[in-house]
Write the structure tokens for this entry.
Amino acid sequence: MIASRASGKKLHIKTYGCQMNVYDSARMAEVLAPLGYAPSDSAEDADMVILNTCHIREKAAEKVYSELGRLKRWHGAKPASGERRILAVAGCVAQAEGAEILARAPYVDIVLGPQTYHRLPEMVAKATRQAGGVLDTDFPVEPKFDYLPTVSTAPGVGAFLSVQEGCDKFCTFCVVPYTRGAEYSRPAAAILAEARRLNELGAREITLLGQNVNAYRGVAPDGGAWGLGELIRAVAALPGLARIRYTTSHPCDVDDDLIAAHRDVPMLMPFLHLPVQSGSDRVLEAMNRRHTSHDYRRTVERLRAARPDLALSSDFIVGFPGESEADFAATLALVREIGFAQAFSFKYSPRPGTPAAAMPRQVPDAVKAERLAELQALLREQQRDFNAACIGRELPVLFERQGRHDGQLVGRSPYLQAVHAEAPAAAIGTVAKVRLTALGANSIAGEVVA
Ligand code: 5AD
Ligand code: SF4
């Protein structure tokens, strides 16, 4: 161990962006636990703060600098322990703008990219010894997963498990291939061991995570190679788990075996986040998405043939450079045709260093705003219709935690809908049949069916 086992220190991690960051934050807390850092919900009384950042859109990156501004005073004040406070910036902004962070906020002690979390204890030791920021944004040859400790903290009923990282797709709008690096798939044996461990610690549902999760191609326990479909079957065969999900997928990497898994594995939930970004073939081509809107329709058709109750979610970008009214209309048409249970939509945000940022015919912000409002109105309507169609149905709900009112629990339906119902606390972690009765603002009301 690199540093002394000082105890009683508090660590606050603020997580921005995707579920991959949520997973990474939990791993960072685990590597710092042996140094005496215990998680804390507040930054104010913490000895160390980590901002785990997101660089996907400009707004996300800007938030980091305002938060650093707020933390300047905190950093200068001495905590109860009398030791110097440590401020670290992790994640994709750190990877993309490491030097700029140290220039704009010179009081930051540590800047580390997503691939070097296992070296965090060493960096903390260095930062306590020396003044001036420690910068570590390498893409080390040794995968970080080989060096991270086994999961030790209770993950909750629903747990994330990172199976794949990085992306080789290079969509022209996206920073991920630059911030997260090349695709890497963890060996299946390590994933299965972590899934077992998560289950022992109380997880009943596992979401397999990856920037491009269905490009998973990892070493199988017998030395061969597994795709995501095979991995899902193996996780499903572990005792104790109730549900499996995976995210985020690329339409091009939905292969026959994955579709077959949706047909054959009841534990694989009938809900799929499959970003399409646009319904216009011209725009899809300029985005380097490598598929047409017809390909997407066809993939959805095949998935629905395998699992007829499959609900879909997607990501959309409006106002990509050169997007015309006709292109945007094609997106609306695709949405109407497919019907989404849920979706995320964004105004195109030029990211420095990506090809699309330098493309001609950038769309004015007012046009982006108008298109986004129209698309979101349609998507909201579809989500409402989907939820409304579930009222009166009995669905299995996995209870995750206490609800807002006494005697109430909150859980998820197979379609990822939040459902609240009266049930004893002992039902947390179990699947109950629930009749959905009414749409609420943030969740659906239901009654447990005896
Ligand atoms: N501008 C707007 N949205 C973006 N996304 C990724 N990059 C950008 C960008 N430059 C969206 C995509 C992706 C989701 C995670 O974020 O829709 O699927
Ligand atoms: Fe970004 Fe495209 Fe890779 Fe998704 S598939 S992470 S949008 S480059």
Q: What stands out?
A: The first strand starts at residue 9 and ends at 15. Residues 9-136 form a domain with the Rossmann fold fold (CATH 3.40.50.12160).
